[in-house]
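New to this. Look over this protein:
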Amino acid sequence: MQAPVEAQEQGAEEPGRSASVQPLALGLGIVLMLVGSFRPDWLAEASGKANHGLAMLWFWAMAAGFVRGVGFIPRFWLWRWLFSGWAAFAALAAALAWRFAG
């Protein structure tokens, strides 16, 4: 009975992919979480209203940083791309551009 379960668990990982902690992505997620928690006004417009587009990019970068940072790699290609380290940094770059350009 144990052999089929072990075979399934061994085949669960994609070949060539290693699920390990990524300190840079995890650090990004933690920093974005802290900034969003202690300075929520940074995600608002000058009038004080919430800037939902900026917040969406900011929290996407934070979520992707946490997901990739702890070493989780989704199986479905769309989630794998949306929560990759590259997507985290791209969302952060877009959020910073929105914040400082707008």
